[in-house]
Specification:
Chain B: It holds the Pfam family Pyr_redox_2. Chain B: GO terms for molecular function: oxidoreductase activity. Chain B: This is FAD-dependent pyridine nucleotide-disulfide oxidoreductase. Chain B: Keywords: FAD, Flavoprotein. Chain B: Its cofactor is FAD. The complex is a heterodimer of chains A (76) and B (407). With 76 residues, chain A is α+β, with helices and mostly antiparallel strands. Chain A has one domain. Chain A is built from two helices and four strands. In chain A, β3 and β4 form a beta hairpin. The longest helix of chain A has 13 residues. Chain B has three domains: 173 residues, 3-Layer(bba) Sandwich (FAD/NAD(P)-binding domain); 127 residues, FAD/NAD(P)-binding domain (3-Layer(bba) Sandwich), CATH 3.50.50; 76 residues, FAD/NAD-linked reductase, C-terminal dimerisation domain (Enolase-like, domain 1, 2-Layer Sandwich), CATH 3.30.390.30. Helix content of chain B is 22%, strand content 28%. In chain B, the strands form seven sheets. Chain B has a five-stranded parallel beta sheet with strand order 3-2-1-7-19. The longest helix of chain B is centred in the C-terminal third of the chain and has 17 residues. Chain B is built from nine helices and 26 strands. Classes of the chains: A alpha+beta (76), B alpha/beta (407).
Chain lengths: 76, 407
């Protein structure tokens, strides 16, 4: 793996299911995602793909998205 | 200095306040709300009622947010009337407020069932954060439920019952849930989702009256067929009534909501409206429409504010809305206006996958996706481009939609 691909991967995001939500969490409903972000999000949920790096979506590391389950955005 | 008054601190009113401050840094901005707390996330309160989400993440703004932006927030304040000739807002709790430009963003309140005992203890309507707190508290102590209202709001009660361990009967007037947008095949997927969480759909039913005990607490519902359903918890979601009583005499055109154009202007000078309360001109649909989604309300507030600050028709509202149901194991997304249009195409793909696309004049105006959301952005793109594709419905119903296959 070269430096560039390593850096890109470190900026990618993944989704991690969560069972409970702490009071300090930032939480959004899936209907608050824009159309393009919803596409990426849905692809990540359904197919396990990583989310693209910062800027391509409006998802923030650490926030929880309410979909059919609750998932947290994590660094890949 | 211009004084903007915004009535309502939901997402449309709050979005307008934020945009007005950005567009007009020197202006006076006042936000009035009859609720006792600043903006919260209305689409997450159902998660709180289900017992899955604590209160704190649902709040969006605290009072400091308004102070930082030099926006005056007036909580627990009821507007009694508006004088659009003198440009004055009358309230119950404070002095009259003069305005230069006014935004009405008061949304709606749940409609009560016009039946006996519909205001009994234990019968809930679901709209505010305070409603959600009450529903959660009562649901945690309840065993048997009845739900009324076979639409997008009623199904939230089904989810609350499911999550809180309440066995419930969902009494529907017709032969399926959301019959205006779903055929039997699509609706049956939703019915199965309800059954899996312990909620039994009952068709060709409804509520003729509620029964109460000596303390006035609901103990049962009787449907028009005479069937009785035990319950110690009831949820009613048969629609919204729009909060326009205080506008009586103000000269604003109403048609089951406040009529606005694509710039969010009412028919009265310098009075705008945004959010659920509007019957707005939808430029993609080509006619007046209503929409209760979060994104639509937020964008309407922004558009209203841009045009208020510009004192001009600077930007029109053009939006494709989304509304998801996230209560079951499968995804559900309604977009645009799936109940409108002059024709539709639909297909069932499996026991958990179904799709409908609605057309008007050959163009997509809305749809429903159950089980597979992958084509959502393509359908929304076609809506925004206003392409005539109804004669190529087969392409749109392919499991994998490829827009390059369209002629």
């Amino acid at each position: 793996m070269n430096m560039a691909s390593s850096e890109l991967r470190s900026r990618q995001r993944r989704l991690e299911p969560v069972e409970s939500v702490p009071p300090t969490a930032t939480v959004r409903h899936v209907d608050q995602l824009d159309t393009e972000t919803l596409d990426y999000f849905y692809d990540a949920v359904e197919n396990g793909r990583a989310l693209p790096a910062d800027g391509a979506t409006n998802l923030e590391v650490g926030e929880i998205i309410v979909f059919n389950g609750y998932v947290r955005v994590e660094r890949a | 200095m211009t004084h903007y008054v915004i009535i309502g601190d939901g997402i449309s009113g709050s979005s307008a306040a934020e945009t007005l401050r950005e567009e007009d840094p020197e202006a006076n901005i006042t936000v009035i709300t009859d609720e006792g707390e600043p903006l919260y996330n209305r689409i997450l309160i159902k998660e709180h009622a289900k017992g899955k989400l604590p209160e704190a993440p649902i709040s969006i703004h605290d009072e400091g947010w308004y102070e930082e932006r030099d926006i005056e927030l007036s909580l627990n304040t009821h507007v009694t009337s508006i004088d659009t000739d003198e440009r004055i807002v009358h309230t119950h709790e404070r002095d009259d407020l003069e305005y230069d430009k006014l935004l009405v963003a008061t949304g709606g309140t749940p409609t009560q069932l016009p039946v006996e005992n519909s205001d009994a203890d234990g019968i809930h309507h679901f709209w505010t954060f305070q409603d959600a707190r009450g529903i959660k508290e009562h649901a945690e102590q309840s065993d048997r439920g009845v739900i009324v209202g076979a639409g997008l709001l009623g199904i939230d009660f089904a989810a609350v019952c499911g999550a809180q361990g309440i066995e419930a009967d969902y009494l529907m007037r017709g032969d399926r849930w959301w019959r205006y947008a779903l055929s039997n095949e699509g609706a049956e997927i939703m019915h199965e989702g309800m059954r899996e969480v312990g909620v039994e759909p009952v068709f060709d039913s409804g509520v003729d009256r509620f029964e109460v005990d000596d303390d006035g607490h609901v103990v049962g519902a009787v449907d028009p067929n005479g069937e009785r359903y035990d319950c110690d918890f009831a949820g009613v979601a048969i629609g919204l009534s729009f909060n326009t009583e205080f506008l009586r005499g103000a000269g604003l055109e109403e048609d089951n909501g406040l009529v606005v154009d694509e710039y969010m202007q009412t028919n009265v000078d310098d009075v705008y409206a945004a959010g659920d309360i509007t019957r707005f001109y939808d430029v993609l649909l080509g006619e007046q429409a209503q929409n209760g989604s979060w994104g639509s309300a937020k964008e309407q507030g922004r558009i209203a504010a841009v045009n208020m600050a510009a004192d001009d028709e600077a930007e029109e509202f053009e939006w494709v809305s989304s509304y998801s149901i996230t209560h079951f194991d499968f995804p559900f997304l309604s977009f645009g206006h799936p109940t409108l249009g002059d024709e539709h195409a639909e297909r069932k793909y499996s026991d958990t996958e179904w799709r409908r696309v609605a057309f008007k004049d050959g163009k997509i105006v809305g749809g429903v996706l159950i089980g597979d959301l992958s084509p959502q952005s393509k359908f929304k793109q076609l809506m925004r481009e206003q392409r005539e594709v109804a004669d190529q419905a087969e392409v749109l119903l392919n499991k994998q939609v490829d827009l390059d296959d369209l002629e």
